[in-house]
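Ops channel
N.P.: pipeline sanity check, posting one input/output pair.
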């Protein structure tokens, strides 16, 4: 049986007046999440909070660690959060357009199950190599996939934050589900774009490979994003497999 060590933190950054990000860690239920709200001011902050509370509600009391049960729980959690945000918008029309990008990482006995939507990201460090498990659901990433622009141009494209998918925007939720085996030594990183917009992957990898504990790595990533300008809220959540 694998053991998991979790750590996470969110920071308002240096340019924003409020924090629209949210995260949850549950060692008991073997999952963690990060969400980045959209919709402006209170609406974005509320969307990420609704997502976090919805996932907790679905996971609480569920102790099965079979792959099928965990996979179903992740799907159900996203659907439930999507429904709750849409219900809120129906009751508060002035919040129309609110939603959130989200990463939800849950573990069975030997597998990870990852739910992903939007431009927050999940990475895995294995054998010293960083691999992005998710693909951004953005207009610019779609243009890269279609061969219209290069990956290098995408990094600073003026439309790079145009999101095509998010929780709470449509009744039909287009969710990416990613599943794989875990091995001892794996380190998973969930983060909002407040990190990845400011810190390149090679530097993220260097920090994750450094000889500091998991809490120190979380702090170092946030500190590095702020040193680079801290343009957005920064949320970093990690899970180390031992």
């Amino acid at each position: 049986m694998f053991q998991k060590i979790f750590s996470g933190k969110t920071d308002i950054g240096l340019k924003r007046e409020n924090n629209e990000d949210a995260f949850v860690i549950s060692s008991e239920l073997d999952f963690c999440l990060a969400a980045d709200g959209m919709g402006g001011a209170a609406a974005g902050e509320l969307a990420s909070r609704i997502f976090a509370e919805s996932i907790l509600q679905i996971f609480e009391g569920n102790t099965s660690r079979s792959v099928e049960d965990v996979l179903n729980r992740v799907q159900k959690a996203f659907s439930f959060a999507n429904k709750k945000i849409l219900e809120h918008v129906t009751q508060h029309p002035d919040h129309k357009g609110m939603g959130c990008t989200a990463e939800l990482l849950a573990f069975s006995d030997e597998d990870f199950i990852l739910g992903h939507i939007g431009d927050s990201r999940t990475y895995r460090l294995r054998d010293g190599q960083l691999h992005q498990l998710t693909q951004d659901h953005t207009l610019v990433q779609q243009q890269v996939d279609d061969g219209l622009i290069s990956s290098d141009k995408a990094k600073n494209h003026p439309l790079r934050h145009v999101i095509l998918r998010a929780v709470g925007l449509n009744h039909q939720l287009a969710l990416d589900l990613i599943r794989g085996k875990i091995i001892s030594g794996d380190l998973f990183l969930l983060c909002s774009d407040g990190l990845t917009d400011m810190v390149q992957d090679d530097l993220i990898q260097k920090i994750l490979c450094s000889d500091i504990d998991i809490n120190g790595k979380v702090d170092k990533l946030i500190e590095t994003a702020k040193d680079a300008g801290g343009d957005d809220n920064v949320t970093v959540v990690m899970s180390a497999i031992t």
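N.P.: looks fine end to end. The chain has a mean pLDDT of 94.
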